[in-house]
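Complex record, two chains
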Amino acid sequence: MPIKVNNVSYAYQVGTPYEKLALRDVVLTINDNSVVGLFGITSSGKTTLLQVMAGLIVPQKGQVLVDDVKLIAKGKRRKFTNIGLVFQFPETQFVLDRVYDEIAYGLTYQNLDKFIIKERVEKSLGLVGLSFSTYKDRNIRTLSSGEKRRVAIATILALDTKYILLDEPTAGLDYLGRLDLERLIADLKANDKTVVLVSHNLNYLLNICDEIYIIADGTIDSIITNKSSLMDLEALYMANYILPAYLETVFKLRARGYDISLNNKEAVLEGIAKVFRGDNYA
Amino acid sequence: MISLQNVTYQYPKSNRNILNNISGDFLEGEFIAVVGKNGSGKSTLARLLNGLLVPVNGQVIVDSLSTKDRENQIKIRQKVGLLLSSPDNQIIFNLVEEDVAFGPENLGLPTKEIKYRVDAALKMVKMEEFKKHPPYLLSGGQKQKVALAGLLALNPKYLVLDEPTTMLDSQSKQDVIKTILDIKNATNLTVIMITHDLEEVVKADRILILDEGLIKADIKPEEMYDNKAVLSAAGVELPEVTQLIDELNNKGLESLPHNLLTVDELVNELCRLK
């Protein structure tokens, strides 16, 4: 059963001169076992939407249903939801020193047997690609920033929620870190999880998501799915979004009057080469 | 000129040299990009340049002043401005203009001069209209420009930027980088930028590749393709356009040169072939 966002509106600083409408009548459904991207420029409302889905922000209008149950009842968030949220730069929020203790911390309030806790810590470290025996006793402060990010994500995975929300998980990660994260998200999907991530890197989202919601001015402007054609992306290019280099190249060439097919990446490359490599190419 | 002379740095309680006997010069008016993976020592280098950290061995010399000498510290910090990735960590006041004025106020400048500098700095980053705004209501890119104005108000000679755009979306990113480059071109400022973003790197005069605490290569952006082995060992990916040229060449467009760095350059070159 999915996460349903029904007609949600939210404004910050209501009643002050700085009142700002962040979300306007947003409707969307996050399907189970999918990877969904929320994309938009800074202050488009994407982080607000993520926090509404996690129940951290109570919308002034509308409702969020998780597995058909209202996330907020009588103005209060349900105590145990099936949602785990990883904040932006989560490594700044560590509370304990030892990797094991930090990951187990969220479980200590769930009255779980310590063997189950150990099992969960081991499993979540494995999912983020860190070996249990090497890392469990390490002091978090001595880890590199990439390792810290992974431990931070593991703390949420240990809660074993069905939905995992990630706010800008690639910010500050280097190329290798971004590839690792890509693999982790694929693993989570293979383990029946649903992942929602916010990013301002469309290129990255196009690589990993089943669906991408383009958020502009607090509403859903358009939806790109893995079945969308490159034609749909041309509209985003026209709206000044930054796209992968091969797409920008082909859109610019098309604007100059070259008719190049937009079937898929392979066809685009083939099309460009065909137009420009000259007649004597065999 | 900032000069690194056999600089070695090790964090307290660590047994590993994060930077290992590195040397090099940053000349006036240059734009240098420093790349490398997480943990390669890039941010440590940034903090050594303005004396926030002092080398364990060797010296960092800023215009003939060594950062090791405590008496030089104030002079060096005025010459070398350091901008961090998160503007929220460096903005402290409730109004944009107050925040920008904080630096010059601490220099004990006359009120008139402070006002002049604040206005000039905000104008340089094109944020004049937000002078009376509370910074926390600005977007990430706008906040980063306010933090930048705070540094510019000190009239620095060198600007060290530690991943200044990681928190920003693509549009704000381009805006911040363009602002920095416009200012650099107008004022002969030296810009040293630490970054993971290759679209930013291609705009630099030269690129330092940092890996395992060493400067593995010192190259021009056009030479990135020829150094792809060094870059990949240092965990740095090639710019998208360079990768695209490779893919197109494999499809029979052998003549495309590898020194094209932007989509526009590539499109023009393709159209020239026709």
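Note: The interface with chain B takes residues 13, 18, 20, 40-43, 89, 142, 144-146, 168, 171-177, 200-203, 240-242, 244-246, 248-249, 252-253, 256, 269-270, 272-273, 275-278, 281 of chain A (CB under 8 Å).
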